[in-house]
Amino acid sequence: MTTGRILLIVGLIVVAVGAVLSTQEIEPWADYTLVAGAVLVILSGSLRMRGK
Question: How far, in Å, CA of 51 to CA of 9, rounded?
């Protein structure tokens, strides 16, 4: 597995955790995890595009 795919998987897991936290109404932490997951997904996309 390449670094881009690993970051994508980790980013999607972090986004899923943020979605669960937002349903439990833990607002500040849910926002932070959703933003961190989005940043990881964007970074993985840029790494995958550079690798092609």
Answer: 17
Tokens of 9: 């998987």
Mean pLDDT for the stretch of residues 22-47: 89
Radius of gyration of the chain (CA): 12
Angstrom distance (rounded) from CA 6 to CA 48: 10
| pTM exceeds 0.85 | no
> What are the CA-CA distances from residue 10 to residues 4, 7, 18, 31, 34 (Å)?
10, 5, 12, 17, 12
Amino acid symbol at 32: Y
